[in-house]
Structures are given as structure tokens and as C-alpha cells.
Amino acid sequence: MSPGTNVVIALAISSIVIVVISFRNKLVYRQRRELHGCEVPPSLPQLDPVFGLDLILSRFTSLKADRRNVSLLEQFRRHGNTFQSITFGRTTFFTIEPRNLQSVLSTDFLSWGVEPMRLFAFEPFIGKGIMCSDGAFWEHSRALIKPTFARTQIADLHLDDFGVHVERLIDLIPKDGSTFDLQPLFARLALDSSTEFLFGESVQTLAPDLTPSSAESFLEAYDYGQSCVGRRIQLPKFNFLTTDSRFWKSCQTAHEFVDQQIQKALLVTSKQKQDVDGRSRYILAQELLRQTHNLLDIRHQLLNIFLPAHEAIGVAMTNIFFNLARHPRIYTKLRNEILVADLKARTLTFERLKSLKYLQFVINETFRLNPTIGTNTRMALKDTILPTGGGPSGHGTSPILVRKGDSVVFGFYGLHRMPNVFGDDVDVFRPERWEKLRPAHWSYLPFGGGFRVCPGQQLALTEIGYCLVRMVQAFERVENRDPTMEFVEHYKITTESKNGAKVAMVPSHL
Ligand code: HEM
């Protein structure tokens, strides 16, 4: 036989094998679907139902147009609480059904993971650690930080340090009624506080005349690097579109800066630090050193924790003031509660802040309307089942069969706008709704849920409450100075306000 004939035979055999395997897979899939009573949820209309190019493009367009959460919400409202689409040739399920969230994040936790999606996007920037691993490596990562975050007093002890940064922030706010943006100030607060907590030394971007230039370039590099990571996650197969030489340079700058901070922290033992300051402090780098002597692991874990820690409270504080500036009545009501309570900064604790009901309502309502993390995704590590949402209506209750490699996207933004849970006025900022509201489990998840729930939740809520109290004590009024009234989102892993929070603040003594 000629070589040409051999090639034809080989091609024919391969094609037959592919057809047989795909037919067999379809049959097995159908049998399993019937066995478990599964149904398929509605599909998004797609021009390219094989690879999903049109959807990938429209996703990229809404990302560029700063409408990522909003367009997903529109799809939930149009197609129901659970629907599916094809992206990169794989099925992605979108859901805001609390039972599905509970299953993926808790009861069927082991069937789902993040590593296949995140590691590739994150690794050049932060290395392998808690944010981008699954299985044994994730368990090891979580166990490393558990002893620190499990201590209930960690947030309160950290407040001594945090208070210094908040006072600096208040000093920097214009007192003459001029317009300014709170967003960059809150971003610096989050950075100053998180570097102190993680590395033992704050970058002090809020300190007068102290701002080291390396911290400025680090901030800039980190900001750019993170927005690229966000795009790398969105479009994993199109990295030529989402990364450039500035990304790699940003990774390098961020690494050098963080490595330098870690080296400094490693030189100081916790005991020495306590003696110098005459008080106990928690410094994560040193706490990790108690757990392991693997310095590379510590570096990666710190970089991983720095990612969610370094800006989340800045985004949350900006969003709170974005809303307060547009609702003067709510600001006055909050201020009354705080003034009546006659709080001294040094007596503020997690528990004391919890007892301020209206303060908690304002925080809850901001996290509901503008969740810092608007969506989250998991990939099926094996064939499994979503408990509900199957059927053509989008509100069906049949289980859904999921194949290994398929993904599920939860829309926290959409979840927090479910009228059956939060009322008919879901798009309105109304803290009072929390007087009666007790959202059912898995209906309100600003800090995620289940085994990967945010370990920094208590720390973040304490810092946010503390900062809010001090700001409201210091300023009688906050005036909106932004002609755009609606919240325009900007996605970069967290979802921040694209227009910041442009305000004028009227100091208390006037
Ligand atoms: C407003 C503040 C914050 C919000 C809204 C927030 C939200 C979240 C959410 C939704 C997750 C779950 C991600 C997932 O399921 O994949 C998460 C995870 C995480 N957060 Fe936070 N976070 C905040 C602050 C912090 C702080 C201050 C720290 C650390 C000091 C922190 C450390 C982490 C870590 C390490 C994880 C990963 C946990 C894991 O995968 O096991 N977060 N956060």
C-alpha cells in the first residue's frame, strides 16, 4: 500500500473511533441524566453553539463597557435563576439558586475547584497558594492561616494600628467644602492597613511626607497586574489580548516590593515587636513562620492573601460613601446613632460595633447592592449534579447533570437582588429593610460561603465599622459631587466604583 493510502486508512479509523466515543459518551450522559431525573436548564441563544465565540465576544464587550454584573443580572431576569451557555466549547451554568450555591460551596465541595481556572491566571502574579489551589495544597494553605484568623481577638488587636491610618485619612480630607474623590484615599487606607497586618510594616501611603516612592510604584504595578489577572480569568484562551509586557513588568515590580517587605518582617520576631511597642500585635508573616520554615511557601501564601486583603475594605468603604453621599437622610440617621452611643475610638471592638444596629444595616445594604465580589466561578473536577434549576423555564426544580470540566458561575450581584428574598425595591439603597430581613441561608453571601468562606471576614467588618464610625464622628455631612448618580461598575477581581466617590465633606465643628 502506498503511504497515501495508509494515511487515508488511519484518518478513517481515527474518525470512526472519535464518532464511536462521542456517541458512547452521549449515551452514558443520557442514561445518567435519566437515572437521576436531571433536566437541562434553558440555554442562552448563541450564534456559535459549538465554541461559543459570540458569547465570549459579548462577555468581553460588557467587561470593556463596565457592565459585567449588570448584563449578567439582565440575563438572570430574562432567562431565569439558572441557565447555561457554551464558552470555549464547554458548558457554563449560571445560577443564583441558593440550593445550588450550598451544594457547590459546601455539601458537594469536593466535586468543585478553582485551580484549573485560576492557577494559570494568578501564578505569574502571586504564585501557588490559598487563592488558586484545590485539594491537599489548598487544605495545607488554609491550615497555615487558620490559627491566626481563628483567634477572635485578632481584629480588635489590629485596631490599634488601624486607628492610626484612619486618623491620617481623616486629616487628608479637605475641610473647605471642595470636591474630592474618597476612592484613592480608601485604597491607600486598605493598603497601609493590610501591609501592616501581613508584613508587620505599613507602606504608609497616607502618612504625610513619608510615602516611599517604591510604595507608589508598587501600588501602580499592583493595580495594573490585578486588572490583567481579572482579564486572564475571563478570557483564558486569549491571553495575547489580555497580557502585555507591562503585565510582566508589573509582576516583577510587585514581587520585588513584597519580597523586600517579607525580608524585613522575617528579621523581626514577634517577641521583639511586642517589646518595642509594649503591646501585642498580629503580623501574619511572623505567625506563618511559627507554622512552617518553608520561606517560599510563606511568600506565596502571603502574596495570595495580599490579593484579597489589600483592597477589599477600600472598595467596600468607597461603596458605602458612594451610597451615603446620595442619601443625606441615611447619613444623618447613622450619625445620630453614633453620636448617641458616645463612642471613644479605643473602646471600639468587633462586639461593640456589632451592637450598632443602623451601622450594621448600612454595611449590609452596601454589600447587598454593591458586593465587592460580584461573581464567583467553580469548575467541576468530576461529573456531578447541581440539585436544582433544570427544566426549560429557568425556574425549574429538576437536578442538572454536570460533566467534569464544566463550570458554574454564581452571580452574587444577582443573588442579592432576588425580590422574593429582599423585597420588590431590590435596586434601592434602603438600610431599613434589614430591620426585619433575615435572608435564608445561601441567599446573602458577600463573603462567600462554605469551606472557602472568607477567613478575613471578621477583620474586614471590624475595620469597616471602625472607619465608618470615625468618619461619621468627624464629619457632619457628606455631599455628593458626582453628576452621575448611578453606580458604574469597574471589574478587576473585585468590583469597584468606576467613578469613585466624588464628594465634599463638612467637618463636625462647623
Ligand atoms: C470587604 C472585605 C472582604 C470581602 C467582601 C471579601 C470577600 C471574599 C469572598 C467572597 C471570598 C470567597 C472567594 C471564593 O469562594 O473563591 C473570599 C475569600 C478569601 N478572602 Fe476575603 N474578603 C474581604 C476581605 C478579606 C481580608 C481583609 C482578608 C485577609 C486579611 C481576606 C482573605 C481572604 C482569603 C485568603 C480568601 C480565600 C479563602 C479560600 O479560598 O480558602 N479577605 N473573600
Topology:
Layout: H1 3-35, H2 53-64, H3 68-79, E1 82-87, E2 90-95, H4 98-107, E3 112-113, H5 115-126, H6 135-150, H7 154-172, E4 180-181, H8 182-199, H9 213-234, H10 239-242, H11 245-267, H12 270-277, H13 284-291, H14 295-309, H15 312-325, H16 328-341, H17 350-354, H18 357-369, E5 375-380, E6 384-390, E7 398-402, E8 407-411, H19 412-415, H20 419-422, H21 457-474, E9 475-480, E10 489-492, E11 494-497, E12 502-507
Parallel strand pairs: 2-8
Antiparallel strand pairs: 1-2, 3-5, 4-12, 5-8, 6-7, 9-12, 10-11
Helix pairs in contact: 5-9, 6-13, 7-8, 7-21, 8-14, 8-15, 9-11, 13-14, 15-18, 15-21, 16-18
The chain binds protoporphyrin IX containing FE (HEM).
Annotation keywords:
alpha+beta; single chain; globular; 510 residues; Cytochrome p450; binds protoporphyrin IX containing FE; 3-stranded antiparallel β-sheet; 2 domains; 21 helices; 12 strands
- Which structural class fits the helix and strand makeup? alpha+beta
- Tell me, what's the shape? globular
* Gyration radius, in Å: 25 Å
User: What hetero molecules are bound to the protein chains?
Assistant: protoporphyrin IX containing FE
Domains counted in the coordinates: how many?
2
Task: Name the CATH class of the largest domain.
Answer: Mainly Alpha
The CATH architecture classification of the largest domain is Orthogonal Bundle
Distance between the termini: 98 Å
